[in-house]
Design brief:
Length: 272
Amino acid sequence: MGNASPEVQGPARHVTRTNDEEGFAHAVDTFILGQPPLARTKLGLPPRARACLFSLDGVLTQTASLHARAWKQLCDYYLRQRARSSRQPFIPFDLVRDYSRYFDARPPLEGLHAFLDARGIELPESTVHALNDRKGELLVELLRQERVETYEGTVRYVQAARAAGLRTAAVSASRHGAELLQSAGIPDLFDARLDATQPPELYLAAVRALGADAEEAVIFEDTPTGVAAARAAHFAYVIGVDRVGRPAELRRHGADLVVADPAVLLGQDEAS
């Protein structure tokens, strides 16, 4: 067992397998790192990975319907008031079409600007920000009324990553990451939570909070813009999570790998 200390050599003798070197390596993993080697490698990640980031909306939690409903409440109220004052027809926010076209996979303010532009509405920037703030309040009200559903495959992957000794963070451009995690019942699964910032600064701040560098971190993202931002930030590995049938788009924006569910990586050997 070479120059190993007696403290390590003692327990190592009890776990030695077919040869001395393999048994000693297993002992170090078991008694010093706290995990057998298989638990640390069967995640389908590069061996240099020390930290994992998970996008909150779309990767961890099923929040699209909540966001869409909050936007509809906000926009319908504003559009109805505007129609009355201008004596024009009230055209309501379409829960499916308008949300998917203008808000899905976009930062909130960007989506709101796109929607207002499509309706031919020009507002002072302060008013746009006030509308966005009100949407956040409506979202929090919805979160108080109902529990956010998680993607169970992602939750199982986070649990496996933590068991393997990787540090984990939940990231979201929304300002309500804490409320979302609490509603989903998974705040304790993460060493850090970063929100209310746009990528790639959001991702880099999360990596720093985990005590790692981007070159040592893996990110799971479901949006093309998020994937592109992670690629630009030089993450070690960018995994696109495709839940809507656009794997080619995620690859085109820089994903090293695209999966329908992070759980499919459990049990896979290290990525190169």
